[in-house]
Design goal:
Blueprint lengths: L13 E8 L2 E7 L5 E8 L5 E3 L5 E3 L6 E6 L5 E6 L1
Antiparallel strand pairs: 1-2, 2-3, 3-4, 3-5, 6-7
Length: 83
């Protein structure tokens, strides 16, 4: 791949950082509401670039809590909160 264009920014948003971790590219974006989102670009089985549709990490205002969402064996979303 000689060139990659990632079209994720909305008007007024700003890229804070782009980094490579292994085969993935991580893009850190500051949103208009001051939240910071981390998106990832990886390659699928055919070698084509694939953008995460939802941010892997969202940093927002709060009191020092971390919310982690996962899917259990039954396909149900599970929320874990730590302080």
């Amino acid at each position: 791949m000689n060139r990659l264009i990632v079209k994720i920014l909305q008007k007024g948003e700003q890229v804070l950082n782009v980094s490579y971790i292994g085969e993935e590219i991580h893009i850190v974006v500051r949103k208009l509401n001051e939240e910071v989102c981390v998106y990832s670009v990886s390659r699928d089985q055919k070698g084509q670039p694939k953008l995460s549709k939802t941010p892997a990490i969202t940093i927002t205002h709060g009191d020092g809590e971390v919310e982690a969402w996962a899917t259990d064996a039954n396909g149900q979303e599970v929320l874990s909160i730590t302080a």
